[in-house]
Amino acid sequence: MQVFITGGSGLVGRAVVDELLRNGHRVRALARTDASASALGAAGADVVRGDLAAIETLRAAASESDGVIHLAFANDFSSADAVEQAVAEESAALAALGEELVGSDRPFVTVSGTPYVAGRASTEADPVPTEGPVGGRGRSVTAVLDLASRGVRSSAVRLPRTVHNHGTGGFAGLLTDLARRNRVSGYPSDGSQRWPAVHALDAAVLFRLALEQAPGGTAWHAVADEGDRVLDIATVIGRRLDVPVESVAADMYGPLGAIFLADQPSSSAHTRRALGWEPKQPSLLEDLENIHP
Length: 293
Fold this sequence. Notes:
293 residues; alpha/beta; Rossmann fold; UDP-galactose 4-epimerase, domain 1; globular; aldehyde dehydrogenase (NAD+) activity
């Protein structure tokens, strides 16, 4: 299968490109910068120059492919305006990619986040939020899944708050970056809230399985660790960086403060049963031992 992928040079994207190529697929990957183009080419992918704003480039690449995996996102959480702009850009890109696949029964795998459900671990049957700081992403993903009624084998792989590899990535990576800058390993509130996690290499396997097997209109959870306490995450970070571990105000996390405060465990039981996905890589707390001062 020839697969067009956006975001192929990111933490998850690099792993997905390698996973696809190892399993006999051909990959065409969108590259915004020279550095990304060089890395993707070296990995064995054919490079398509452009970004999410290059709508005609996206349309052409999708039309020439047997399937599409979307991973790209600006990841600028510096302000509410920056988040809104990134969400709007992604929404337009998803709409363009989806329209090119209508009526083809080709797979279109997009990315989402595991939802928050009060009092229990979220499951694949729970809807993603369509309001709040990143509600626009939820609306876009829902629109992609709705394309199943128009002849697109669309699916969404929901990633947990931390996707990690060698101790970096996700919300835990943000805590690490802040700990390095502030010389304090901080956690919001009392740290009892739980965050799910997955290793990037395990997530990559699920993206491939969704591309190959997932029925249209379905959502899947790339969750290996159902929920680690944020205090435990911060404690490992503090020990590895040799800095104190302390509770800090949620507003230091900017527009993500409310999300950081939420207890948000998530289950992948259905995904494992239905697609045969089985995480094999180190857990988050094990992987954080790779952090160096």
